[in-house]
Design brief:
Length: about 375
């Protein structure tokens, strides 16, 4: 009977947790995806690049939401049980409150291990792949950004200005600054974009090219030239950030300080950022058991007691402060070793004190 009761609790909590996490995650992902739309409207990437990049950001969102959603899930399920008098079934069948909270903590430990794996491996891997995909992508939406009366500088080493477009859809009075190979200015009276499969070129008519190479200025006139646009590179940052690097690389850099990758050089200046990132990945999940203990502490009281609503509000505020503290601590952990040990020990000490108070309360009930 006890096993069935606990299985029901685990099932209800897990279902609510997964459904809420997915629902909130999709909402946050949608809002974030709207912000990423600049990749199309301003950076010239195609919709394929946009969707893949935003999709690969989903594990990061889940990683950030997981502790809070887990607290809400346990808290909500237990409050629901109390409202429907279902908690009485636990106590009638000989399950004491200390044993019940220990079952919740076991569940939280599994989730802690999962979040360490998620934050240390899956999240940086997905972010690294997103950045790498962005780096190797072209700017296939660039041609739709070429509009008269505005400077187009979404690409690396090239700026384009077009005065107008006539009734035949031909561009007139085109000015181009091209720094891809040598620095040069191009002026053309007319021009048109020519698209052929993956090839893009600007067909320019009746103009001048001003080359500026090693302080030597040369001017050439032309009747017609084709300016290749197929090798244009985006201005979007393509170098991986620290949060996108493997945990193993960060650990090697932190302890050995001699890691040198093609896109990442271990430097003493970035050690504080590495310490902060390692704290987020490995130590922040330690707050999950504490949040589970806070949520489970609602069983100390019952809805028949006057202090039930007060306890419910206090526990929610306490958990909210713990989450805020865990976010703030990652920002200051790199300042000194003393702060590092303080923020590392804080969830463990707080957990021990909270469990001690819970244990005493249960003995007095």
């Amino acid at each position: 009977m006890k096993k069935l009761i606990f299985n029901k609790f685990y099932t209800n909590t897990t279902k609510f947790f997964l459904s809420t996490l997915l629902m909130v995650g999709i909402i946050v992902w949608t809002i974030q995806a709207v912000n990423y739309f600049d990749f199309v409207t301003e950076d010239g990437h195609g919709f394929k690049v946009y969707f893949i990049y935003t999709f690969l950001s989903f594990p990061k969102i889940i990683n950030r939401l997981l502790p809070f959603i887990f607290f809400i899930s346990v808290f909500y399920v237990l409050i629901g049980y109390e409202k429907r008098n279902e908690l009485n079934i636990f106590w009638i069948n000989g399950i004491n409150k200390i044993k019940f909270i220990n079952k919740i903590l076991i569940l939280s430990l599994f989730l802690t291990i999962f979040q360490i794996y998620l934050g240390s491996h899956l999240t940086p891997l997905s972010q690294f792949k997103a950045r790498d995909f962005l780096k190797n992508s072209n700017i296939d939406f660039f041609t739709s950004l070429v509009k008269p009366g505005k400077f187009i500088n979404v690409t690396k080493d090239m700026t384009i200005f077009i005065e107008k477009r006539n009734e035949n859809k031909i561009f007139e009075n085109i000015f181009i600054e091209d720094k891809r190979n040598i620095s040069r200015m191009i002026y053309a009276k007319k021009g048109n974009l020519v698209l052929n499969n993956e090839n893009k070129k600007f067909e320019l008519l009746d103009g001048k090219i001003i080359n500026n190479e090693k302080s030597n200025i040369n001017i050439f006139k032309f009747d017609k030239i084709n300016l290749d646009l197929s090798d244009l590179k985006t201005k979007t940052i393509t170098t991986p950030k620290i949060q996108e690097l493997k945990t193993l690389w960060l650990l090697k850099c932190f302890f050995n300080k001699n890691l040198d990758l093609a896109f990442f050089k271990c430097d003493k200046k970035i050690l504080p950022e590495i310490k902060e990132e390692l704290f987020k990945r490995i130590m922040k999940p330690l707050y999950i058991p504490l949040l589970a203990l806070i949520a489970g502490s609602i069983i100390i009281s019952s809805k028949q007691k006057k202090n039930y609503n007060i306890l419910k509000n206090l526990l929610f505020i306490f958990a909210f402060l713990v989450i805020i503290f865990s976010e703030i601590s990652s920002k200051y952990i790199a300042y000194s070793n003393e702060l590092f040990y303080f923020y590392f020990l804080m969830p463990l000490v707080t957990f021990a004190l909270t469990y001690f108070v819970f244990y005493k309360k249960c003995l007095n009930v």
